[in-house]
Specification:
Blueprint lengths: L12 H31 L5 H28 L10 H16 L10 H29 L1 H4 L3 H30 E3 L5 E3 L1 H25 L15 H9 L2 H32 L2 H19 L2 H8 L1 H22 L4 H19 L2 H16 L4 H29 L10 H28 L5 H20 L1
Antiparallel strand pairs: 1-2
Helix pairs in contact: 1-4, 1-6, 1-7, 1-9, 2-4, 2-15, 3-4, 3-7, 4-15, 6-7, 6-10, 6-11, 6-14, 9-14, 9-15, 9-16, 10-13, 11-12, 12-13, 12-16, 14-15, 14-17, 15-16
Length: 466
Amino acid sequence: MTDNNGKVRPFGIKDKLGYMFGDFGNDFTFLLSAMFLLKFYTDVMGVSAALVGLMMMAARFVDAITDVTMGQIVDRSRPGKKGKFAPWLRRMCGPVALASFLMYATWFKDMPMGFKIFWMFFTYLLWGSICYTGINIPYGSMASAISDNPTDRTSLSNWRTIGATLAQTAIGVVLPLVVYYTDEAGNSVLSGQKMMLGALVCSIGAVICYMLCYKMTTERVKVGQNTQKFSFGELIKELAHNRSLIGIIVCALVFLLAQLSLSNMNAYIYPNYFGNIKAMSIASLSGTIVILLLSTFITKLASKIGKKELSVIGCIISAASFITLFIIHTHNVWIWIALIIIATIGTSMFNMVIWAMITDVIDESEVQNGVRQDGTIYSVYSFARKLGQACSSGLAGVLLSIVGYTTATAFDPKVIDGIYNVTCLMPAAGMTLLLLALIFLYPLNKKRVEANAAKLKEIRATREQQ
């Protein structure tokens, strides 16, 4: 945390890289679940898509308790030598990695259906509602403690997205080439054994990335222990009057509906509709390149025109791309990928600044209420993201069942056309709803964010003089 003179090391590239590794670790398990868990349980374990989707949605009711509980634990924990948030990365990296691996236990595929359903529920709740919550909430809250400068925080958000993009490259580009095989009929089929080994590699990678984040980041903003008595009723009352938090919650929910529904459906549209697994990897790699290119100037662009303002532009671009794909109903995978790349530009304009937007919400809450609640506010926001994840997976599972998808009908013409329509319409709806939420609900434009930062800087300077 300090240099040789005993002073705190200035914010710099080491913090950015360290924070990047944190989300790299997160998405080694999160994206793996978003992209492959539904496919694994429908095609390998033989569980119906609707039931898998129902499980993912039901788990969010548990998260409503565990997320807020973890937020309170973080807020009430005492800062240590390494800070208040970073120690949780070291404590929880092992459990979250192990829980993720256990979700893909292909050795149970011949067990009775009742046991497979039990194991699916048990491991998913253990991973998502307990272990992932235990590491993701302190990690997300840590951004506001690394720096109090809005530009630095936008930079952290940008680098966090780069970390997620690198994980997406490993999972979305490399893994499909490894875990699928071609059956006797010439169809691309998911291998349970290879999927389990892939999950093991991702779990090991997650632990390494979390420890790099722990070692490389420095918490400069001293966030004290919150000793106020907790009241769930007061929390709900406060949240109900916090327009900025309500706005970012709705934005997160509908954005995850768009983003993760596409991730879920990619596992069906490329092998089943287009019959081209390599194209799936190419599309993912193209998305990675787009995001890395945007990362070179997104911080400056957001600082110049505002994070909210930039996100509105991105929503219009992305929604228009998905609607165009639905209208033309192309069978040409390269036309599909070209428009998906354009859509990725739009979604990235929001996704690369969203983590800075939540720190803006935390600042807004402190200005309005005089109390800083990083962990609690981030936990509520995290729950909204998980709800969006569940809604996307649950809705995808239900819609797959509606269009008639089973392992027996997976390549029927009517079914694969239904897969195409679902893959277009769910992201289109999500990005359109995000646009409306940003315009009519989320109040933190560029001017207000800068005013809050100046106010808090003045308050902290006064405290230090006392």
